[in-house]
Amino acid sequence: MELLQRLQKWQQRKESITTPVVHSLSLWQRILLFLRQVKSTGFTDQLEAYEKRKLGIFNLLNFFQLITGILIPVIDFVTVPGLPASVWVVAMLPSLVSLTVLALNAKLQYKAALLVYFILYPVLTCIIYINGINLGVELSFVLYGLLSVFFLQETGYMLFSVGLSMISYFILSVVLKEYQYQLKSFHLAAYLVNQLLAIGYIFYGLYLIKIENAGYQLSIMRQKAAMEKQTEQLKKQAAELEELNTLKNKLFSIISHDLKTPMYALRNLFHNAQELKMSAQEIKAMLPDVINDLNYTTGLMENLLHWAKCQMQSNEVRKQELDMNSLAEDVIQLLRVQADAKQITIERKMNFPAYAFADRDMINLVLRNLLSNAIKFSHREGRIVIGIHTYDSFTEVFIRDSGPGITKEVMQKINENNFYSTPGTASEAGTGLGLMLCREFLQRNNGNLMIESEPRTGSTFSFTLPQS
Predict the structure, then answer these.
(1) Can you tell me the distance from the alpha carbon of 101 to that of 114, in angstroms, rounded to the nearest whole number?
(2) pLDDT tens digits, 425-441
(3) Contact 197/205 with Cβ under 8 angstroms?
(4) What is the pTM of this model?
(5) Which residues make Cβ contacts (< 8 Å) with residue 396, sequence separation at least 6?
(6) How many other C-beta atoms are found inside a 10 Å radius of the C-beta of residue 287?
(7) What is the pLDDT of residues 342-367, one digit of tens each?
(8) Which of 392, 372, 397, 385 is nearest to 322 (CA)?
(9) What are the φ and ψ backbone dihedral angles of 408, each rounded to 5 degrees?
(10) Are 357 and 320 within 8 A, CB to CB?
(11) What is the pLDDT of residues 77-123, one digit of tens each?
(12) What are the structural domain ranges in the chain?
């Protein structure tokens, strides 16, 4: 009930706003509004844009011919003395054609309207002349011929209409020259008006056709531009799908192959401990390899889960102010066991406040991957430096290791192939997925990843993030 009352109030308010607007229209605006309604006679949603343009031209021509077809004979009958009423009636016959055409278009009988116009108009005009009446409208036959080329799509109908119009024009204006009622003799001004109207209709028809064709060509160009844009988007999407398909295949390869190794290592360890009754010393000797495999698997699983989450929430980046010192310290503590296994020292150079504006989970993963890679490629008893620099608008984080460094050839492969990876200094495995995620996550947070390395001098991985 409350909803119904609201709708009624809205309708009343709408009517109270609309009514004054309609009544406030000037006479010229009302005329233009009426002409638009005439032009849109017979428009439906099923009609294409080009067909609507042609129909609009056809409606306006018939409307103006209807008006002049009534007014001119009436004016002639009133102003020309001694003109028989039969002449006036015959002269008004063509206006009935325009009225019939508009009625047929309103009933969506488009083809019938065209045939009525291009057959009856020349025929009735001929009847006027055959009855001995020369109103000075013979140039209308030229108009019929020109319009038939534009409006009639079927070649047979078009040729018939053009032939009928041209033959009628030739016979009535060239062969037959003597008529009982010559408007030129009775009323020269009215005769000249009819001639000028015929010429005006010719130019008006050509003008409308030109304007509508130009508009149609412009709409085609816009559609073409839109289609080209859609094509580019489809190509881009196809390339992205191809890239995702390649990524999917690679991930399935990783999951099916690389994840089996640590599972088999654990199974073998427990199996041997149970079946072979291994001593604690023997079990302890096997643990480093198993731990190494588990470290790799843990990092891989984290990267896979973050990648899957990233794909499912492709547009979701929850940026916030990050304390980079605290975030780096958390990552160092998380990877402390992995570093201690190779007796690697991690040195911090972050004794001043440093902040960035980014997604916490994404940047946490970036730091974990870069520090894990530094541990992986550092020699036993090596040294890793983590530092943070702040600038005017961004914060830079770098991780420098003392490993074997990266050659130019390997650097090129890293930049070209998202999955390129080499074994670590203790034969640690890798997939290259972590570095790929680092690049993608930094890009989503308006950051950049830089790599500096020379053989035998270690490597420095750094990234920048905008400040809060």
Answers:
(1) 7
(2) 766 666 567 788 788 88
(3) no
(4) 0.46
(5) 388, 389, 390, 462, 463, 464
(6) 11
(7) 888 999 887 688 899 998 888 988 89
(8) 397
(9) -65, -35
(10) yes
(11) 777 666 667 777 777 788 888 899 899 999 999 888 888 888 888 88
(12) 40-227, 318-466
Q: Kind of pairing, strands 394-400 and 459-466?
A: antiparallel
Q: Tokens in use for 415?
A: 């930049």
Query: What is the C-alpha to C-alpha distance for residues 202 and 173, in angstroms, rounded to an integer?
Result: 17
One-letter identity of residue 245 = N
- Asked if 445 and 317 count as a contact pair (C-beta separation under 8 A), the reply is yes
Contact present, 179 and 129 (Cβ < 8 Å):
yes
pLDDT for 292-314, tens place per residue? 667 667 766 776 676 666 666 55
CATH code matching the domain that covers 318-466, chosen among 3.60.150.10, 1.10.10.10, 3.40.50.1580, 3.30.565.10: 3.30.565.10
Residue 347 dihedral angles phi and psi, to the nearest 5°: -105, 135
- Average pLDDT for residues 163-182, to the nearest whole number? 76
Report CA 376 to chain centroid distance, whole Å. Answer: 46
How many alpha carbons lie under 13 Å from residue 336 in its C-beta half-sphere? Answer: 6
